[in-house]
Amino acid sequence: MSSAVLGQVLVFLSLGLTAFVAALAIQGAVHRDSRKVAAAGFGLQAVAWLGVATSLVLMHAIVTHDFGIKYVAQYTDTGLPLLYLITAFWGGEKGALAFWVLSLSILGAFLARSRRDDSSPYTGWLLATTALTLLFFDVLMVFASSPFETFLASGGPADGNGLNPLLQNPLMAVHPPPQLLGFIAYTIPFAFAVATLATGRKDGAWVVDARRWSLFAWTMLTAGLLVGELWSYLELGWGGYWGWDPVENAALLPWLTGTAMLHTFSVEYRTGLLRRWNVSLACLTFLLTIFATFLTRSQLIQSLHSFSGSLLTPFFLWYQVVLLAVSVGLIAWRWRVLRSESRIESFMSREALVVATAMLLLMAVFVVMWGTLLPKFSESPAVLAVVDRALAGIAGLTGSVHVPLTGAVQVGPEWFNKAVGPIGIAVLAMTALGPLFSLRQAPGQAARGTVWRTLFSGVLLALGILVALVLVRGAALAEISGMAWSKASWLYLKGLSWPGVYGLAAVTFALQVLAVSCLDWVRSVRARRVAKGESPWTAAGVLFRENPRRYGGHLVHVGVALSFLGFAGAAGKLEKKDIVLAPLEATTLGGRNVLFLGTRDRWDGTRNYAALEAHFQVSKRGEPVSDDVVERVRNEASGAIGVDGASPPFLKVRFSSEAAAREYLVTQTARVTLASSLALVGADQSRRQVRLVVRRPEVLRVLPETLRRFSDAAKIVVAGAGGDRLSLKGGGRGDPTMTVTATEDGVFQAFLAGWSSKGEQAVLAARPSSVDKTVVEVVAAGGGLAMSPEVRFYVKSENPTTEVEIEPGLLTDLYLAATPAKGAGEVNLTAMDHPMMSSLWAGALVILLAGSALLLPTRRRKSRIVSAVKDPGSEVVA
Amino acid sequence: MSVTDLVFAVLAAGALTLALRAVVRMIGAAGGSDCEDKGAG
Ligand code: HEM
């Protein structure tokens, strides 16, 4: 049996079995038949094993290049390394669907196992919801988007299309599994909510069970988002890490509600409050994961009108409608039952702050969704008219002037930053305050003191940072402009626009969060040391084990604060240059000089791409070249009478005669610009003629323009020889050879010498001096930081990829991306200072480590479940 | 049959065996489910 047929059979079997399990679980729940519920549990385990077998069949087809299967032919080829073969499993829509089914069935099996001892109707609904969700994805896989679809007539192509080069990156290889798992795992908290609603169970036990799942989903989703950001930063070359692109926004939505849910769960777990919030957030988060998948997979985000793009779109649309109806219906039905026994009594309690935070996060969901969908929906004139009327109404109320909308509304990253920024900052402020308040009570005298001290210190902190900024920046501005220092400072203060103000607020609150979280740890550790004589590390470990939420939560908050410092860095100061540079032109960035040396090509035979590397040297402005670098250049330049490093980044190499300088220049430029890409053939000493042929003809296949770059480079060498001492023929369109002829023997030998030098060279680039013909200006190796961003052109893909080069630093990253420009040898350079990026990534790491630590098994403290203990008999109300 | 094929075949067969075992357990657990409190929901 072929893989395709076997896979198809397994998918069908799994569909049938899942439907059966769902029916069994529903029957068991409705008829209170514990045997059926238990049977459904085993059924889910069988489904999971079937899912594993199906995935093995697909993986086998991929790694053995079974191109008869469309999916395999579309996303892989024989040249793909094993890592990317494996990741091709989830690289395309159909594979991602298979991954979804596999993961959800495995999570379902774990869920069923964890409920082995409880075959109540509650478990029945839990399993039924999981099985029904799985059924939806099974149906998609069978009827709309099967990864096992084969080519009908032929046996398939001899080789596949290969994986999109943008995805051939280790980060992109690992990005989808956590991202998808994050989405998928939110099914389980949803199932808990449905089971709670269906049975009308009143105790808070469900949040105990659902918390672990929601934390798992949250940690995975966070990891997925962060890896995505890192990939975007390193690979896309546009200079940022978060572009408010619809796909990114879609993934952010469930993260926002998921974050709110972590906290509302914690409140119900301890106090029995916020039940309505919890079931609603569990349903909403799940719905948003489906919405995100829908938005990503459908063509909705490219254009509103191409709904037919993916077969999955109508399925997802209807599924969302059904989910929404079921969720709203169930919640409405149980609205009264869900009422908590008590109410929030003080606005100064932790639960009040958690609710406020949840509202802020929901506001962010609304804003992000609005900004993502509005540009698409407003393409329709009817929607545009409605929005226009609404805006006119608002303008009428506020007395402002309304400018009628004329075309589809455009929403860019700046809009999002402006709109979401303040919400994020408010959440950050809450994060600083939240842990200071107690549950279920207004703060006492002492606690109130802490709160006031925190608020007051915040104001002081903000003022302090502002004063420091004004002093430092004012001084810098005064230095550049020659203005009086006080005037420059005032100008800076006046010019502080919204990104600056947001940045300032973010830094203030982030520092407060750091202080609040760290101080709580430090105080508790010290108390234990005094009481028990433990070492600080032991004490910290014990604290975490005894109260993982509190201390793990602090750690996560520390990570959040560090990340916000990173966001603030981007908002506060971001020097960015987009500039076209010709070889040996430079630009400045901050206090640095970024000198473009030239391009060079490279061929990667295993992955089949040609890379165009752009070489740069980055040095501190005005910093002299060190003596040993000067010495190396002197030693290498035979015949030089002096090397002068007084005008960095160039060194002036002086010769006794013009001819000696000329020959040195010819050798160096030929070596630097030609020798690595072109080979010499048939040097004819008597005619002083030599042919140059392209060393890597493969490069020309993907990058025919390279030929022009070679001949441009050769022209520079020829020009350096001056007069008609060297002449060039060939190298025109489609001609991969050039002939160079010399009129003087010395110049000819100098030209050939460009190919004879071996080993590491002291000179990276050379040019004639414009004033003195006995002088050659060179850039020395070791005279600064070498950076070489590149662009890769793949044989099998139209889209080149940019590989940026980043020099990470504690306070700021230097970021370079370069793509070929129109002019001879030129590149478009994007260069920037990215302040505080290290803080962003450090924060990300802390969040992920703390999230994972919180997932480690701990002893449960059942006594905390307040209402379960209060009225254990009230399990089922219906 | 290459080594790769063999490894995948063994793994898939293992998974299918476990699936079958779970199905047998499912049938066993559901067996005679004329439950006494049927209809109480
Ligand atoms: C982006 C913002 C935030 C993130 C990512 C975040 C994340 C987390 C995480 C993962 C936990 C551990 C939860 C658990 O183990 O179940 C936690 C705990 C906690 N968070 Fe947050 N949080 C954020 C904002 C806030 C805010 C605004 C407040 C204030 C109301 C807050 C108050 C707390 C408290 C008090 C705990 C300890 C929970 C307990 O002891 O039960 N957090 N946070």
Rg over CA atoms of chain B: 18 Å
* Unreliable stretches covering 5 or more consecutive residues of chain A: 303-308, 861-878
Shape of chain B: rod-shaped
- Low-pLDDT segments of chain B: 33-41
What is the makeup of the main sheet of chain A? 6 strands, antiparallel
List descriptors.
heterodimer, A: 878 residues, alpha+beta, 6-stranded antiparallel β-sheet, 4-stranded antiparallel β-sheet, globular, disordered C terminus, B: 41 residues, mainly alpha, 1 helix, 68% helix, binds protoporphyrin IX containing FE
Give an account of the 3D structure.
The complex is a heterodimer of chains A (878) and B (41). Among the domains of chain A are: 3-301 and 312-346, no CATH class; 643-756. Chain A is built from 28 helices and 18 strands. The two termini of chain A are 51 Å apart. Chain B starts with a helix and ends in an 11-residue tail after the last helix. The complex binds protoporphyrin IX containing FE. Protoporphyrin IX containing FE (HEM) binds next to helix 10, helix 11, helix 14, helix 16 and helix 21 of chain A.
